[in-house]
Design brief:
Helix content: over 70%
Distance between the termini: 23 Å
Number of domains: 1
Structural class: mainly alpha
Shape: elongated
Number of helices: 4
Oligomer: single chain
Order of helices and strands: HHHH
Strand content: under 5%
Length: about 130
């Protein structure tokens, strides 16, 4: 039973982060309706995908080192809230913050739990 819990705890943040990164990349496709020329569209698409690309790098590193994923995704959620609150406050911004940064906080927390559990089992074996 313990082994199944460990496997699910291992895979949950990784799968959730892949889904989250794909969601962020999907939201960048709105640049195609902007009426831009080819190079402007390429630049806009790259700029809109920067957060997803950064989180993809964090995910690749955190596949082996969970602490990087924990800190990286929690920082990404905090950065999103800070950037969102630079605008004048509107109530719909609260739902945006919960949807985007909430998922980032959840994934980061799951990576940290995995890291703590892995570290705890390594200390027991020594």
């Amino acid at each position: 039973m313990e082994n199944k819990i460990s496997k699910s705890l291992y895979w949950t943040p990784r799968i959730l982060s892949i889904i989250f990164i794909c969601f962020l990349a999907l939201m960048s496709l709105d640049v195609f309706g902007s009426g831009l020329n080819f190079w402007q569209t390429v630049v806009a698409l790259f700029m809109h995908n920067l957060p997803a690309l950064v989180l993809l790098v964090v995910l690749i590193i955190s596949w082996k080192h969970e602490i990087v994923g924990g800190v990286g995704f929690i920082l990404a959620g905090l950065v999103y809230i800070v950037l969102l609150m630079r605008n004048q406050f509107e109530w719909y911004l609260l739902s945006w913050a919960i949807q985007i940064s909430g998922v980032a906080f959840l994934v980061g927390t799951l990576f940290l739990v995995t890291w703590f559990k892995k570290r705890k089992t390594e200390c027991r074996s020594n």
